[in-house]
């Protein structure tokens, strides 16, 4: 037990202290003897290198054939191990046989010298024959060396393919159930380790020791010491100096405003990452300048450097997010006591992640047993979950103390609360998975949680930075905004529109990139891997078969949720930020928003079906069924839908118009896909199908003249009145009313002359059609008051009494058959009243019972 712990501790110390990938210095072949302790399958081949190469070529072909059909992880791991052994055999064959023999052949040819030229003294037949033999041997050896290099390159491609297959099988491995962390069997590898694991770890440790000893060989001690001290200084003092320098630049050189804070946060992240990469490069120079890495060490260090960069990113994002050194520059709304309480959390989490990454890469490099691998994964998941859970509990305890002291709580948004709740649920789920024996699930949840935090924090900082950069760049208060304004002849409103548009575009692109990173990436993913994943997602063919599986259903639901959220967010951004800064009318803005939302939802549905694995040619039966349904029951819905699109495109009516249709008059409040909502004068709403607005006659009051209405009154006076006096009274009444416009001026027209009197029509314009009815009512009150003051009556009705003889009317002479009976003076048909028998009073345009 003590020996195992000592070996493991030595491996971790060596990995974290002196073993980082020498990417620029390990491109050559691994040295002979660094084979990991396995026997060469061609150890018996001595003289005939061609047969050995042919045997290795056959094994390489067999591995490629098996890799194209294998499905199990155990077989993939076995093929990966065989591939590495063949690469080691090829390197050993080239180093021990082909290369020395090729050098001897070249030396012998150099001894013979160049072939004699024409006209010179010919050489002896024996020398000429020996020259031909050596030349042929050199050609054969060159071809064999090229063949060996080809085998090595093909096996590198096979290793990459196997790595991709192992990553794809991760989802299947999540369902593996093992012993619980509460059981003794889980902790058995610590107490009773397997001999094979111990030997593998010891052999790997010997490789690390050899690599470390090459750093401290005589003649390299001073250079190695200087490089390592420089790397240490760069990672500590250099990071602090670079952070202070960038902070000074942000404070002194950037314009005032929010840009300083967001740029300072990004500069903190940049300083940590830059100094970390420089330190890694210095250590790689110290390690790999004299001795190349073996395949096992090369794989280990390649993966370890990714974890080092990710851990540095975790530390940098945490420091920038909390910003405990400069609380006034903190971007998120976090109380200072909470930030101080979480100050050590980024460093602790980064150190634990680095430790866990080194442990897992050691397991992969030495190919440990499944039991030891599960144990290390469970231990790492337990430590990370407990660390995150403890930080959450500590932060909540500090918030409780702040609230109890009566201080104002943090201004947390609903999204921040949702993220906090989701993190708590994931931590509890990881601990529960460890208790119930789902170690792979716990490890997946903890690593994905850390990756989610990295992506979310990066997205937050980049979104804030792009917003502040766009606002500062196009602000009229800054020199850049004024330069752009005068250069292109823009207005301040145009600058605000450009800034808002660019902010929205960058924000949408960052959100999409973050979603792809969450779905395709993971802890230990490099930027190159993320770019390849994004290109694969955007360019992949997702519509090859109608193959619906649970994973596709989950992806489709996630895509639909994200798509709906994006459509709503962009629509809200259009409605609140971009469109109000344009000169569009409210009706036009509402139509554009509705059209954008409809198109966006259609695209979301199509993308969800694509992720689900639906092929369009397999939907022919659905289209056929829909055509039958449209022919019977869906035709009205389709007709209204098409009518709604026509209304949004042609815009004969729009939101805000006052229309009249089928006796309904009101203002249009909304045009949806199926129907249009019309608000009446009593504030009630009538829902009219869109097809009626297309197929029926619609009176649009505000279409031709959107700002003025008409208040027109027709009054009948006696024949003996003075028309000019009445005209003056009517014009004065219209002119004194505040709602009647002076331009165009009110007019009075003599419209009718009858025996009952004269009819004058007075017309005036008001500022809106919607106040015409109220204005006419107020004008009638004012006109009647003025007419009474001037002693001018309206037309007095003449009364005509019609008495029927007793016993009723003669046969054939009913009221309807008598000329003029039952009709008013204007010829409108009336019916006999029931109050008095065949008696009515007809007066002008009115009928009185």
Alpha-beta classification: alpha+beta
* Total separate domains: 6
Distance between the termini: 117 Å
Low-pLDDT segments, ≥5 res: 1-47, 538-546, 804-849
Computed over alpha carbons, the radius of gyration is 44 Å
Helix content: 55-70%
Query: How many DSSP E strands?
Result: 10
Give the helix tally. 25
Strand content: 5-15%
Main location: membrane
Family: Belongs to the MscS (TC 1.A.23) family.
Domain Mechanosensitive ion channel MscS C-terminal: 716-793
Transmembrane segments: 221-242, 263-287, 374-393, 414-439, 445-465, 505-525, 545-567, 588-607
Task: Spell out the key features of this protein.
alpha+beta; disordered C terminus; 849 residues; three-stranded antiparallel beta sheet; 25 helices; membrane; Helix Hairpins; disordered N terminus; cell membrane; 6 domains
Protein model, in words:
- There is one protein chain.
- By secondary structure, this protein is of the alpha+beta class.
- The chain has 6 domains: 1-20 and 177-406, no CATH class; 39-114 and 123-168; 542-633, Helix Hairpins (Orthogonal Bundle); 651-703, SH3 type barrels (Roll); 709-789, 2-Layer Sandwich (Alpha-Beta Plaits); 797-849, no CATH class.
- Helices cover 63% and strands 7% of the residues.
- The protein contains 25 helices and 10 strands.
- Strands 4-3-2-1-5 form a 5-stranded antiparallel sheet.
- β3 (675-679) and β4 (685-689) form a beta hairpin.
- α14 (414-436) packs antiparallel against α15, α17 (492-520) packs across α18 (527-539) and α21 (620-632) packs across α22 (635-650).
- It is elongated.
- Residues 637-702 form the Mechanosensitive ion channel MscS domain.
- It holds the Pfam family MS_channel_3rd.
């Amino acid at each position: 037990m003590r020996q195992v712990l000592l070996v493991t501790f030595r491996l971790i110390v060596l990995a974290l202290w002196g073993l980082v990938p020498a990417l620029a210095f390990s491109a050559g072949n691994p040295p002979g003897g660094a084979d990991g302790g396995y026997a060469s399958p061609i150890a018996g081949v001595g003289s005939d290198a061609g047969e050995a190469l042919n045997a290795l070529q056959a094994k390489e072909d067999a591995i490629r054939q098996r890799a194209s059909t294998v499905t199990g992880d155990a077989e993939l791991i076995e093929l990966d191990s065989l591939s590495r052994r063949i690469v080691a055999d090829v390197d050993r064959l080239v180093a021990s046989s082909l290369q020395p023999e090729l050098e001897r052949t070249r030396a012998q040819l150099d001894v013979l010298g160049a072939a004699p030229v024409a006209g010179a003294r010919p050489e002896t037949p024996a020398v000429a024959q020996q020259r031909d033999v050596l030349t042929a041997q050199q050609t054969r050896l060159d071809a064999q060396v090229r063949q060996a290099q080809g085998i090595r390159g093909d096996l590198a491609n096979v290793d990459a393919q196997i790595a991709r297959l192992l990553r794809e099988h991760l989802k299947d491995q999540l369902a593996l159930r093992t012993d619980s962390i509460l059981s003794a069997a889980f902790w058995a590898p610590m107490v009773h380790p397997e001999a094979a694991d111990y030997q593998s770890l010891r052999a790997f440790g010997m490789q690390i020791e050899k690599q470390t000893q090459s750093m401290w060989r005589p003649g390299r001690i001073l250079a190695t010491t200087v490089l390592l001290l420089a790397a240490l200084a760069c990672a500590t003092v250099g990071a602090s100096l670079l952070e202070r320098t960038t902070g000074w630049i942000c404070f002194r050189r950037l314009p005032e405003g929010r840009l300083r804070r967001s740029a300072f946060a990004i500069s903190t992240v940049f300083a940590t990452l830059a100094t970390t990469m420089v330190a890694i490069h210095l250590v790689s120079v110290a390690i790999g300048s004299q001795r190349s890495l073996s395949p096992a060490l090369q794989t280990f260090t390649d993966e370890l450097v990714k974890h080092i960069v990710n851990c540095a990113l975790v530390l940098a994002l945490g420091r920038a997010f909390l910003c405990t050194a400069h609380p006034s520059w903190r971007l998120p709304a976090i109380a200072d006591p909470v930030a101080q309480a979480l100050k050590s959390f980024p460093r602790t989490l980064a150190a634990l992640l680095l430790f866990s990454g080194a442990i897992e890469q050691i397991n992969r490099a030495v190919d440990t047993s499944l039991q030891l691998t599960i144990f290390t994964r469970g231990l790492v998941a337990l430590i990370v979950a407990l660390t995150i859970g403890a930080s959450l509990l500590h932060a909540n305890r500090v918030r409780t103390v702040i609230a109890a002291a009566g201080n104002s709580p943090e201004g947390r948004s609903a999204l921040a609360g949702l993220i906090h709740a989701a993190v708590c649920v994931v931590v509890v789920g990881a601990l529960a998975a460890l208790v119930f024996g789902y170690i792979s699930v716990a490890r997946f949840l903890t690593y994905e949680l850390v990756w989610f935090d990295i992506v979310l924090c990066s997205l937050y900082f980049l979104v804030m930075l792009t917003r502040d950069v766009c606002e500062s760049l196009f602000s009229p208060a800054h020199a850049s905004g004024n330069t752009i304004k005068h250069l292109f002849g823009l207005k301040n409103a145009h600058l605000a529109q450009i800034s808002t548009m660019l902010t929205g575009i960058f924000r949408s692109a960052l959100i999409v990139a973050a979603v792809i990173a969450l779905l395709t990436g993971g802890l230990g993913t490099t930027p190159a891997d993320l770019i390849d994943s994004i290109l694969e997602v955007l360019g992949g063919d997702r519509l090859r078969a109608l193959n619906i599986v649970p994973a596709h259903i989950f992806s489709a639901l996630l895509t639909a949720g994200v798509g709906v959220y994006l459509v709503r967010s962009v629509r809200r951004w259009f409605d609140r930020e971009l469109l109000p800064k344009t000169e569009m009318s409210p009706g036009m803005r509402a139509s554009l928003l509705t059209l954008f939302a409809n198109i966006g939802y259609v695209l979301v549905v199509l993308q969800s079906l694509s992720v689900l694995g639906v092929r369009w040619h397999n939907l022919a039966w659905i289209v056929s069924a829909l055509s039958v349904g449209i022919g019977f029951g869906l035709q009205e819905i389709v007709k209204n839908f098409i009518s709604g699109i026509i209304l949004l495109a042609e815009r004969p009516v729009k939101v805000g118009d006052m229309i009249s249709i089928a006796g309904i008059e009101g203002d249009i409040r909304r045009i949806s896909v199926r129907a249009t909502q019309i608000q009446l004068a009593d504030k009630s709403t009538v829902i009219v199908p869109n097809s009626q607005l297309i197929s029926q006659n619609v009176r649009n009051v505000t279409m031709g003249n959107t700002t003025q209405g008409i208040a027109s009154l027709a009054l009948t006076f006696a024949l003996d009145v003075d028309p000019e006096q009445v005209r003056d009274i009517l014009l004065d009444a219209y002119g004194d009313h505040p709602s009647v416009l002076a331009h165009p001026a009110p007019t009075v027209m003599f419209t009718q002359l009858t025996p009952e009197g004269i009819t004058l029509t007075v017309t005036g314009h008001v500022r809106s059609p919607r106040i015409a009815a109220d204005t006419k009512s107020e004008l009638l009150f004012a006109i009647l008051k003025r007419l009474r003051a001037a002693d001018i009556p309206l037309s007095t009705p003449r009364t005509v009494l019609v008495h029927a003889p007793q016993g009723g009317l003669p046969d054939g002479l009913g009221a309807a058959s008598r000329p003029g009976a039952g009709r008013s003076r204007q010829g409108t048909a009336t019916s006999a009243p029931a109050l008095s028998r065949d008696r009515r009073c007809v007066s002008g345009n009115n009928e009185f019972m």
